[in-house]
Amino acid sequence: MTAPVIASAHDLVKVYGAGATAVRALDGVDVDLVRGELTAIMGPSGSGKSTLMHCLAGLDRPTSGTVVVDGQTVSSMSERKLTALRRTRIGFVFQAYNLVPTLTALENITLPLDIARRHVDRAHLDLVVETLGLTDRLGHKPNELSGGQQQRVACARALVARPAVVFADEPTGNLDSTSAAEVLGFLRSSVDELGQSVVMVTHDPTSAGYAHRVLFLADGRLVGELRDPTAETVLAALTAIRVGTP
Ligand SMILES: Nc1ncnc2c1ncn2[C@@H]1O[C@H](COP(=O)(O)OP(=O)(O)O)[C@@H](O)[C@H]1O
Ligand SMILES: [Mg+2]
Q: Which residues form a coiled coil (predicted)?
């Protein structure tokens, strides 16, 4: 039995610029991301992690190759359809929390649904809020919350619309290790308890240890992967990649 795929890339190439200064950020990436898993993307700085995530999430167009998300071919989609897909089927979490300072946590969480005039499923909202440990923080403004709590609000905002997949680029990059552990633990819970699919870019082996699967990029190519990683096995794999890179 093959695992159900939530997003896939086929022979994905992304070249920035042209001529002598062209940068081949992705150099033929083939990958299937599994539904209901937390996948981490790792690799040295400049290896193409963000580019891969942006192409998968429909934020950037590949130079060639195919991206399919939730059964839809993103790479050849019109800008209009792409915008709709990003709005309804894809959740985003960035390093900066991007919360609205004048709104409460709850108002921030439901803002995208309110803007889209979509119904807020109260039972699902409660479940997300509970899973992210935010139940007693809903009335607080962002400046009354810790960095970890703010990032958990941003995660709840991404999850509440029930996206097919959530993409997170260095979600704990601004957090101390305790808050990072908190956010990552809750992200993993969103996968294990809510069945969410999450793809996370990180350069931190401890963060990658929360994933079901880690993909390793080097020079725009997929050079390895680990299942059920720990910080130790990730670190060993990263060291091997660096040693193997000329
Ligand atoms: N908008 C851009 N214009 C030109 N080069 C870029 C752009 N974005 C990324 N790159 C280059 O592509 C390569 C991969 O970048 P990136 O995907 O950001 O790597 P990572 O996230 O792994 O650090 C790097 O060499 C980077 O300098
Ligand atoms: Mg990056």
A: none
Close Cβ partners of 131 (under 8 Å, ≥ 6 residues apart): 186, 189, 190, 193, 194
Helices 177-194 and 147-159 meet at what angle, rounded to 10?
A: 20
Identify the pLDDT of residue 245: 59
- Please state the domain extents for the chain: 36-54+76-243
- CA dist 226 and 241 (Å) reads 13
| Of the options 3.20.20.480, 3.40.50.300, 3.40.50.1820, 3.40.50.10260, the CATH number for the domain spanning 36-54+76-243 | 3.40.50.300
**pLDDT (tens digit, 9 = 90+) per residue, 1-47?**
567 999 999 999 999 999 999 999 999 999 999 999 999 999 989 99
**What's the pLDDT score for residue 246?**
53
Closest ligand 1 atom number to CA of residue 48: 17
Query: Which residue carries 């792409």 as its tokens?
Result: 82
Q: Residue 162's beta-bridge partner residues?
A: none
Q: What is the number of the ligand 1 atom nearest to the C-alpha of 44?
A: 22
Q: Residue 41: what are its φ and ψ, rounded to 5°? A: -110, 120
Using most ligand atoms within 8 A of CB, pick from 12, 16, 55, 61 the residue to mutate for ligand 1.
Answer: 16
Pocket test for ligand 1, best of 50, 52, 204, 242 (most atoms within 8 A of CB): 50
Calculate what percentage of the chain has a pLDDT beyond 70: 98
Residue nearest to atom 5 of ligand 1 (CA): 16
Compute the C-alpha angle 18/245/55, nearest 5°. 45
